[in-house]
């Protein structure tokens, strides 16, 4: 019945360019993933900022989507920057994972554009994960607008257990 | 550095008479406590409902605490009922723990009167726990007034990681 058998678990960790998410990943590796016998899958989930769009009222008074409010050049630059951020974050996570070389977990990466709370909840449901792990101090440089709401939202909406890992004050980056 | 060494962890689980908290305890035993080498302490934290009090305006127009709004007999009955609930919940938790007989965790119990969210956060801080685990469906028969706010509040206020365990729909008790 309630035996300590290793199970195949899928654990999603929301990662971004902030230290809090790396701390959450580290905490998860130390306390959750360390537990089982290499049957776990760690899903690193990164939400790219959505492209800025604008709306306007058309001739008939209907609100229409005008598309990008920036020039193609600026969009291309932002895309490049966003892709660099993905690389940067995943590289950071990879370095952290290397420290846990005795853990033999499978690692999957998922990168989607959108509000982190939607991306995370959607990925959690789509991949049918057993647990979502989130850091609680902000949500990265370009997603400050969503600060605070991500962990709350996911705790409410996700169908699986949600672990909110707060950075101890001593390790918080200065703001 | 980041090795898989067993650490002494203290994990607080909020328990009450609802099924959600027992599911959270079970999930914790299966996924968190199973991991380490018998160096964990499980703290079962139960919040007794506070005694009802009333306030009134005194002769000078000041608001004063009138004490209990119920007769001593009713208070005694309520106290008895509350104590029986504590026994009931702790017995339920004990039965669940027995199913995990191969886990050798130390078990501590903490019972305090008050709003569950305050009791849990206070106990977590006082005992300097490494993690708080909470069920998310309601908070027991006598604490319906606090429903929904407990896990949110603790996720915001507790200084340690907070795990919110939602009961799968298939196992939810009918409402």
How do you describe this structure in short?
Chain A is 35% helix and 24% strand. Chain A has 175 residues and is of the alpha/beta class. In chain A, α1 (19-31) packs parallel to α2 (72-99) and α3 runs parallel beside α4.
Describe the structure.
Two copies of one chain form a homodimer. Chain A has 175 residues and is of the alpha/beta class. The first copy, chain A, has one domain (10-50, 85-171): HUPs (Rossmann fold, 3-Layer(aba) Sandwich). Chain A has four helices and seven strands, in the order βαβββαβαβαβ. The first copy, chain A, has helices at residues 19-31, 72-99, 116-126, 149-157; strands spanning 10-15, 41-48, 53-57, 63-68, 106-113, 131-135, 162-165. In chain A, strands 5-2-1-6-7 form a five-stranded parallel sheet, with helices on both faces. In chain A, strand 1, helix 1 (19-31) and strand 2 form a beta-alpha-beta unit. Chain A is globular and about 60 Å long. The N and C termini of chain A lie far apart (48 Å). The model of chain A is unreliable at 138-147 (pLDDT under 50). Chain A binds chain B through residues 1-4, 9, 26-27, 29-32, 34-36, 99-100, 102-103, 130-131, 136, 151-152, 155-156, 158-166, 168-169, and chain B through 1-4, 9, 26-27, 29-32, 34-36, 96, 99-100, 102-103, 130-131, 136, 151-152, 155-156, 158-166, 168-169.
């Amino acid at each position: 019945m309630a035996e300590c058998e290793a199970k195949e678990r899928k654990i999603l960790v929301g990662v971004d360019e902030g230290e809090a998410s790396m701390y959450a990943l580290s905490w998860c590796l130390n306390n959750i993933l360390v537990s089982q016998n290499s049957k776990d899958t760690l899903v690193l989930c990164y939400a790219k900022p959505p492209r800025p769009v604008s709306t306007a009222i058309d001739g008939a008074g209907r609100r229409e989507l005008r598309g990008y409010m920036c020039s193609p050049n600026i969009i291309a630059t932002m895309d490049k920057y966003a892709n660099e951020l993905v690389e940067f974050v995943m590289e950071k996570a990879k370095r952290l994972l290397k420290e846990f070389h005795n853990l033999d977990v499978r690692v999957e990466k998922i990168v989607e554009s959108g509000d982190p709370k939607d991306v995370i909840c959607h990925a959690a449901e789509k991949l049918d994960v057993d647990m979502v792990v989130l850091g609680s101090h902000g949500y990265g440089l370009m997603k400050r607008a969503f600060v605070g709401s991500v962990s709350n939202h996911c705790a409410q909406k996700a169908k699986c257990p949600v672990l909110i890992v707060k950075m101890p004050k001593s390790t918080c980056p200065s703001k």
